[in-house]
């Protein structure tokens, strides 16, 4: 489930501070402005920006602030080790010297297999680069992202600045309300593992002319993988999940799908105006809209089931040249009245209770709900001897993070159910730990007026997620702010 979705403030990003951040922000704004002004321009002499001291400082700060900073690559060094043993200035000076001299070579990524959510038994392969490689990848991303963001279509939401999963769900909700009720619920098979390097590099060359930058991107793609068994494997396809630049490269590759399906919506296209879309429907022709979040996407169709099946074959043909294919088992054509899951939400067109009116509703899907319950059970086993304060802190952290992600769905009853589920799990644990009877529980948690006290440990209190307001997410359409345009303004 995506985790980059804070509350919907719609606010501009924080202004960059003086120093390296300010310098990098101004550099990015210029690159983005030039890329927007000339869609066919290929940029040269970017390598100096990659190894610029300011770029490397900002890149290191981003790597150090990432959750994976404590994880070491094949060299055994974490970010903390680099800061304590080498020192950041010396580390960055040495890295810059290697880049300028052309002696920098990425090391193989360390493979880590983690179970996929949902209890399917399948695993996801992560690639953990060494700290030096992460910093260079972050520097590359700082330079390349503003250029390619000028070309990305507005239907793509994953791992892009100022965009979040709720924007993608809101777009599905909007078009579903407008009659787009047949859905191609697509799943790309092993997307990050099977992207063709040659096809990806061709896409990168459409914007980048600097051979040193191209060589650096190619070197990261072919760095190899050190498996959990200690075997070194070559990387012939794919961009390993876990790399700083991997999401950007995946978006560059998958932009071919956005461009193909969005072509009719471009100015002058067959679906570019409401009148043209209406005339197509009058002639029995379908309209469609793709909504993509990284490698998860759906195609909404205002037409028939047969029209959606035709689009399914069309999508498969578009993905084939970049080495990708749809999963036969997970890709399906479904009517919105049946409902489908996307990014942890269950989206369904259904009749409003007590009326004859039909609306598109967004609920919490079953898989993230089961996953959260599994976490709660693991933390509140009745024989657990963990400190109650630690248990309450952990519960508050992941339950409120989960609830803030789903607070724009029809989730009020779900939040209340989870509060009740968690409370009973904790009471069961405390009764077992302290050998309490039910009378003991009531004596400790019920006031003289008959009100139940919250479960506490010192100053730490179990906070109810049902207190989080459930609100409708504001569909931002094309009004999503671009960080570099904001800086120019």
Q: Top keywords for this entry?
A:
489 residues; alpha+beta; four-stranded mixed β-sheet; four-stranded antiparallel β-sheet; 13 strands; disordered N terminus; RT_dom; RNA-directed DNA polymerase activity; transferase
Question: Would you write up a description of this structure?
Answer:
This protein is 46% helix and 13% strand. A hairpin with a 2-residue loop joins strand 6 and strand 7 (296-302). It has a 4-stranded mixed sheet, with no helix packed on it. The chain contains 18 helices and 13 strands. It starts with 19 loop residues before the first helix and ends with a helix. Helix 1 crosses helix 3 (53-64) and helix 1 runs parallel beside helix 6 (131-149). It is an alpha+beta fold.
Helical amount: 40-55%
Q: Whole-Å distance between the termini?
A: 34 Å
Low-confidence stretches: 1-17
Number of helices: 18
Taking the sheet with the most strands, its summary is:
4 strands, mixed
**Judging from the principal axes of the Cα atoms, what is the shape?**
globular
Mean pLDDT: 91
Widest sheet, order of strands: 2-1-4-5
Using only C-alpha atoms, the radius of gyration works out to 25 Å
**Strand segment count:** 13
- The fraction of residues in strands falls at 5-15%
What structural class do you assign from the helix and strand content? alpha+beta
């Amino acid at each position: 489930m995506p985790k980059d979705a804070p509350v919907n403030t719609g606010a501009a990003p924080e202004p960059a501070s003086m120093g390296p951040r300010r310098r990098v922000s101004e550099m990015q704004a210029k690159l983005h402005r030039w890329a927007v002004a000339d869609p066919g321009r290929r940029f040269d002499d970017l390598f100096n920006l990659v190894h610029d001291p300011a770029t490397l400082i900002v890149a290191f700060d981003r790597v150090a602030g990432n959750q994976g900073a404590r994880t070491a690559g094949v060299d055994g060094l974490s970010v903390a080790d680099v800061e304590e043993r080498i020192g950041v200035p010396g580390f960055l000076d040495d890295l810059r010297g290697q880049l300028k001299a052309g002696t920098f070579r990425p090391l193989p990524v360390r493979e880590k297999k983690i179970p996929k959510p949902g209890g399917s038994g399948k695993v996801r392969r992560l690639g953990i680069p060494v700290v030096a490689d992460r910093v260079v990848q972050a520097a590359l991303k700082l330079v390349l992202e503003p250029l390619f963001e000028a070309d990305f279509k507005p239907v793509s939401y994953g791992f892009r600045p100022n965009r979040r999963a709720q924007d993608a769900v809101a777009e599905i909700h909007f078009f579903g309300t407008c009659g787009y009720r047949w859905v191609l619920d697509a799943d790309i098979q092993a997307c990050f593992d099977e992207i063709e390097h040659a096809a990806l590099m061709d896409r990168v060359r459409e914007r980048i002319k600097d051979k040193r930058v191209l060589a650096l991107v190619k070197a990261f793609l072919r760095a190899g993988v050190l498996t959990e068994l200690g075997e070194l494997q070559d990387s012939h396809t794919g961009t390993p999940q876990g790399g700083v630049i991997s999401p950007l490269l995946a978006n560059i590759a998958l932009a071919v799908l956005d461009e193909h399906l969005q072509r009719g919506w471009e100015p002058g296209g067959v679906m570019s105006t409401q009148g043209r879309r209406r005339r197509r429907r009058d002639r029995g022709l379908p309209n469609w809209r793709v909504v993509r979040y990284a490698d998860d996407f759906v195609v909404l169709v205002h037409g028939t089931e047969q029209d959606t099946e035709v689009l399914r074959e069309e999508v498969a043909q578009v993905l084939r040249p970049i080495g990708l294919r749809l999963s036969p088992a997970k890709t399906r054509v479904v009517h919105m009245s049946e409902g489908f899951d996307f990014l942890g939400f269950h989206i369904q067109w259904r009749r409003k209770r007590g009326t004859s009116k039909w609306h598109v509703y967004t609920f919490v899907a079953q898989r993230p709900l089961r996953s959260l319950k599994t976490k709660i059970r693991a933390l509140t086993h009745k024989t657990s001897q963990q400190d109650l304060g630690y248990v309450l802190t952990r519960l508050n952290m992941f339950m409120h993070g989960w609830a803030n992600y789903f607070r724009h769905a029809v989730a009020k009853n779900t939040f209340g159910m989870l509060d009740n589920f968690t409370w009973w799990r904790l009471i069961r644990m405390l009764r077992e730990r302290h050998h309490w009877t039910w009378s003991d529980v009531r004596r400790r948690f019920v006031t003289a007026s008959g009100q139940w006290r919250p479960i506490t440990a010192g100053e730490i209190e179990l906070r109810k997620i049902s207190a989080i307001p459930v609100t409708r997410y504001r569909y931002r359409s094309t009004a999503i702010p671009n960080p570099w345009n904001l800086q120019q303004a």
